[in-house]
């Protein structure tokens, strides 16, 4: 049986209440919007890209604890990374929350993001955990329009 | 745990049922619903998502099974025994719906897939014939998307305008504004009987009277009403009434459009095909009479029969008894849940059915839903396909518990305890 404490870990609750990098970014040269029409979660991700690397990143919006904490931790994780590194991190994060990562695999690269491992036991919440990441991805790709996890 | 339940004197709790002079044995009712016997996530299932869909009593499940085991055949065309029998069963279901709504004639009952299809049917037939550029369609601010979008499609096509009557902070229709919006350009009024997101019972009788003074026909969306209220389409004098079978203990995929025969007769068909014609040549097709003109193709025979069985089941319990039980449950739930710190109820109209939409502090409804689910409690979270209602209250979503005839006070207590658990997780 899935464990609620696995999902709502202390770090996640704390980030959902006091999200980091929660602001519009004055220096942003990329931005994208993510929207989950089924639950109404809505985020904007701002990026300050210098060449190939993410100089600064921030977000704003509203959503559940999982989506907000995920956005918060994501901004911390990708700051200073290159596009390729951020994409690789997203890939690992996606495997983690969809239960495709080996249970005893090396999660060192994920760092704090490993707190989202409990999401894999709650399949309907995967889209909450990945909304900000999909939005970041769109922002990096310079895509127009709103991203959706549906 | 001390809940509001324990503080209420027992005499008060059952006063309403006693006044109604009825005995409503909810334990016996529950035993009619096999799905309620199961455990979910190791807990007894507490199903409080009835506004989304209701569970099915054994008699409905059996009626569908029996049809496929014994009676299955195509209807209205066979000369053989089974076809004759299936036709009788299907038309028998229509008669049950007729008397359920107190329609004047069985031919005024059109079987469709659900309330959504019924509204689309009216918008695309009556609407396309009668609504022109500059005309107006009047709805309310508490409609389900299914009573908004079909009219938007129509208005866009015709260059007509969709007008929306506002609602108050408690979720009641503002009748004065409604009256002011009703004018010479209004060609049809489409209004919900009960709001799915708020539980508000709208004053349809008065709305219909007001509209009829200007000869404007009224469509009533009864999807959330028929499981909870006695509906009499002749007493209401509504022009169209629609509902879905699955919300009133019947199967999915079957619903009803009631229409006054004079209106239905004048309307063009919705879909062309078999069964809706009386003769076809390549030069000219003559449409069938009512209700078949609107039932192209082989219908959902099993669904109609299942719906008939659901109506018989509801009739057997008595709508007055059901309403009294649910009313008492709502009063108890409202008191119990609103006593929890941090709770804000959305939808506090005086006249309500068993819908409790709420927010808890700044905790997102999805998180509430996930935590309750771990306790075996099923509620709906989100915008409830009524985004304009959410916008009206300046919120993105609510958590919604909605009650049916089989729900109990113990389940309300479980809900309250579950909400306390949510508070603990987010403390």
Q: Can you describe this structure in just a few lines?
A:
The complex is a heterodimer of chains A (150) and B (427). In chain A, 38% of the residues lie in helices and 20% in strands. Chain A is of the alpha+beta class and 150 residues long.
Provide structural commentary.
The complex is a heterodimer of chains A (150) and B (427). Helix content of chain A is 38%, strand content 20%. Chain A is built from 5 helices and 4 strands. In chain A, a hairpin with a 4-residue loop joins strand 1 (30-36) and strand 2 (41-50). In chain A, helix 2 crosses helix 3 (65-78), helix 3 crosses helix 5 and helix 4 (83-97) packs antiparallel against helix 5. With 427 residues, chain B is of the alpha/beta class. In chain B, 42% of the residues lie in helices and 16% in strands. Chain B has 16 helices and 17 strands. Chain B has helices at residues 4-7, 10-19, 26-31, 58-71, 81-101, 115-130, 149-158, 175-181, 204-213, 233-236, 261-266, 301-317, 319-338, 365-374, 387-392, 409-425; strands spanning 39-40, 43-44, 46-47, 109-112, 136-140, 161-165, 186-192, 218-221, 240-244, 255-259, 277-280, 285-287, 343-346, 355-360, 377-378, 380-382, 398-402. In chain B, helix 7 (149-158) links the parallel strand 5 and strand 6 (161-165). Mean pLDDT of chain B is 94; it is low at 1-18. Chain A binds chain B through residues 1-2, 4, 7-8, 13, 38-42, 62-66, 122, 124-125, 128, and chain B through 41-42, 363-367, 370-371, 374, 381-383, 387, 390, 396-397, 425-426.
